[in-house]
Amino acid sequence: MTFRRAWPVLLSVVVLAVLSGLLQPRPAAASAEVVPGESLVYTNRVSKGDGTRTPDIISTSADNAVVVWREGLRPGSVDMGYMRYSYTTDGGDTWSRPRTLAQETDQYAWHYVILYQAGSTLYAYLGRTPIADATEPDGINNNGIPINGTFLKRSTDQGHTWQDAPLTVPAKDNLILSGRPLQRDNGEYVMPYWSSGRENGVLISSDLQTWRTGGHISGNELTAGENQIGFSQTPQDAAHPKNSLVMVARAKSAGAATSTSTDGGASWTPFTTDTALPSYNIARSYFANDSGGQYLYIYNAGSDSSNRDVLDYKTKRPGAAWSAAKPFADGPVSDNTDQPDGKGWDNYPMADEYAPGKFWVVWEFDTTRIKAKPLDISNTP
């Protein structure tokens, strides 16, 4: 082969090698950043705004999971950015290179994303916020409020690709879909939300795309918000157990705010506090049932909003008391972050059950990293 003919061949080989490297899954980092048992989904130490935050996860099996999160935009802005995602097919040993779920534009950015799985379809609910804000001195939105639109994307390939889908929700000021839907005995879905005025309630749907207003309660007295729901362990109607619901919300009190519904979410009792569920209004906790009815509560173990360094969890089987606190995550304080807040934070957990009593859990660390790991409560006393 002459040199003239060899150069194009060599160039083709180099290009293919580069492209292969770009497309291959990215190994989970094996460094001091990762506590044994944890998987590092993503790191960005130079993200703008309030950093790499508020993740969610859906796990379709022990090996397959997709994680979404919000990426900050610019210094001084919080609770707004663009949405990215990554997935694993090998139990968290490697994660795909991050892809964009919802990009910001010169007109708007994104406040939150919540995931749900129904059959083989995954749903991503997103809240949008405008870039411009005439009430700010610089005319720029710096806090992710108002939320002026709610949107939906769907995936039929375990979260590897996403497509826009139609969505109808009631008109509410600053509507935030704050937790996963549940499916009642009659087949309808109930999804928790909170909105302006500390209104905590649920939306109801038969198809996950057209939603109507269910019952709601005021969270003003306890500063309640970021509510999530589960099925009651003591249903009023044994023939229709999934009509009895429990709502848990973060609150300014030592214990979380709780409420119950016996009519599928059409009405709710006033909030009371449950001292077995620590809160202190620190951040959103994760609350859900496993498939056997056992409760799982993952929360910040601090006593004020500045102390977000430790995540603990508790469990409760039907008829039993809540367990003692058990450690979940306590990452080292990083000296690498450029974020003004968040050093050492383990914060904003979300989880998804992939087998009875077995969960994939995701959370933000240090406002620069997204972490995930399995949690098995199947043999919890």
UniProtKB/TrEMBL annotation:
InterPro entries: Sialidase, Sialidase_sf. Residues 65-332 form the Sialidase domain. Residues 324-346 are annotated as: Disordered. Pfam families: BNR_2. PANTHER family: BNR/ASP-BOX REPEAT FAMILY PROTEIN, BNR_ASP-BOX REPEAT FAMILY PROTEIN. This is Exo-alpha-sialidase. It comes from Streptomyces liangshanensis. The lineage of its organism: Bacteria, Bacillati, Actinomycetota, Actinomycetes, Kitasatosporales.
